Amino acid sequence: MTAGNKSIPTISVSYARNGNSTKSNALGMRTMQERAYERRGEQYLLIKSPPASGKSRALMFIALDKLQNQGLKQAIIVVPEKSIGSSFNNEPLSQYGFWTDWVVEPRWNLCNAPGSDNGGKVKAVGAFLESNDKVLVCTHATFRFAVEEYGVEAFDNRLIAVDEFHHVSANPDNKLGLHLGQFISRDSVHIVAMTGSYFRGDAEAVLAPQDEAKFDTVTYTYYEQLNGYEYLKQLDIGYYFYSDSYTDDILKVLDSSEKTIIHIPNVNSRESTKNKIKEVEHIIEELGEWQGTDSVTGFQLVKTSDGRVLRIADLVDDDSTKRDRVSNALKDPIHKNNRDHVDIIIALGMAKEGFDWIWCEHALTIGYRASLTEIVQIIGRATRDAPGKTRARFTNLIAEPDASKETVIEAVNDTLKAIAASLLMEQVLSPRFEFKSKSAASGPVEGFDYGDEGYDPEKCNVGFNHETGQMQIEIKGLFEPKSEEAARICREDLNEVIATFVQDKNTIERGLFDKEMVPEELTQVRMGKIIKEKYPELDTEDQEAVRQHAIAALNLTQQAKQTATKGTEGSNEPIANTALIDGVRKFVNVCELDIDLIDRINPFNEAYAILSKALSEDSLKQVAAVIAAKRVSIPYEEARALTERAVQFKKERGRLPDINSQDPWEKRMAEGVAALQRFSTQQKAAQGSGGGI
């Protein structure tokens, strides 16, 4: 921890270290791999599982079964970049109990082949399709060009396995997404898609809804993964603010005794000094006295003030010969388990997804990353389990908003995005929620622990399954999903709904800084609008069920965090691994838990409390002022949504909301009705005068 107001982690999560993640069955499969293998017969399979959970090997098991027992001709493994191709190198699976080994002929691992993606490698794909060999590995780019060259029909009766599936998009401009849509339409291949992210992209859906519905999903959560580790017990995530240049403040958050990956800002971002080489040099100078370069690895050797010699890998250098030597040294399998091989890695676009350095204890990212998916991937670099590594952290170092600079609005936007990322990561790292409507027929479910006092039929209960990492929570008045699709969304996609919600600029601005805002405007109106846009195929009741489940997941996590972290600020002592579960239980115990209560909680209260401590008072006021200046009267879409809620209110109460009510939510609904009436009057007047709006 560091001094001053820059040292407040927004999330601190602890885990039980029960070892389940690393235990193998008789076939040599870990928990996630076994779960995926059970679904090996599916034609379309989506595996959503964190970094380091063993997705590559899970695919090997599935692909070998499809080739041997399901009649497929060949398997084509598609990865986003060449470096990830090494994840699919030969593996002696039979040594661990499987019935055969994973073998890729050297000529068919095109990630190792020279040349461009749209050249000899495309011809190599054609040669492979004509051969009797079974497995090919290539990049997304090579595969795209090959499909354009040979057509989708050339790949019939084969397995297409897409690693890092979040790179795909349903946007017509995304060629890989377009090709996958064509494969699914033709329905003559098997597809296994894998991603370490918990939401499919930041703005664009990965697949069209009708295509996505064909996929069977295997989900292995971050909570299951980290809870089942042997060594890593605690993960801290925080955003920290600096003024002037980040290179002056970096040592306030960088501890040279921790194994660290530093991602410097993109040269086009406002955090960049526009000279990436100088930035790297400055970081090295801050760390100590340069001693030269290691002749074998190319690592920079730097002596610290306490006499230690740091080995620093520079992946920013524009000299490709030097950079490739450093990159190859980092990938050298001989040193994979050598903690002393390297101490700090400095990168710009490298060392993100698929980069496997198990010893990384700190992922330090300067400047906000526009993609939440990228943040999840970067955090994944620090969440590998390794002997002696009990604690890991992710730090996002962001420039404080400065009203004297032209970039103040951009700075405010970055601050809001950092908060959104923090809120989403809290959901990603939490146990999996299962919400049940509380009724007279409710009772305990086998496998769930209901705490020291057990299940109480008179109140709402919180059960926890220690094996699956699933939390079951009873809520009065909760809508249960009726359709299979709504049930799937509530089971699988709540984090994606929450990602859309917290990324909505108007939502997060009002939630943090509008003191007159009624929480239901966000929890009911704004979230309701997002659900309708995201899932238009659901009927009204199922849309409401999804809305309630998503808001319950977000707000209960926030309330649990508040309870769990109370009194622990500034402490280096790890919190109990059951803190989040205990926090939910405490909140439920002191409240009459119903959906109306949950809707009356502002989801951003806790985020504001943390932000007010992390930012200086002047900066906080500047952020509030920038946002207040943009505030307008009720817009048409919001007025219409408020009116829909008012109609529901009338059905329940027999009257319309009263604009003079003491209840702020009833008053806001009435204001929405009045605003919609004004819009309607204006429109009629405009039409009557021959104009329009």
From TrEMBL:
Q: Does the keyword Cell division apply?
A: no
Pfam families recorded: DEAD
Going by the entry's taxonomy, the superkingdom of the source organism is recorded as Bacteria
Protein keywords:
ATP-binding, Helicase, Hydrolase, Nucleotide-binding
What GO molecular-function term can you cite, just one? helicase activity
For the keyword Nucleotide-binding, the answer is yes
What InterPro entries does the record tag this protein with? DEAD/DEAH_box_helicase_dom, Helicase_ATP-bd, P-loop_NTPase
Which intervals hold domain Helicase ATP-binding? 25-226
Name of the protein described by the UniProt record? DEAD/DEAH box helicase
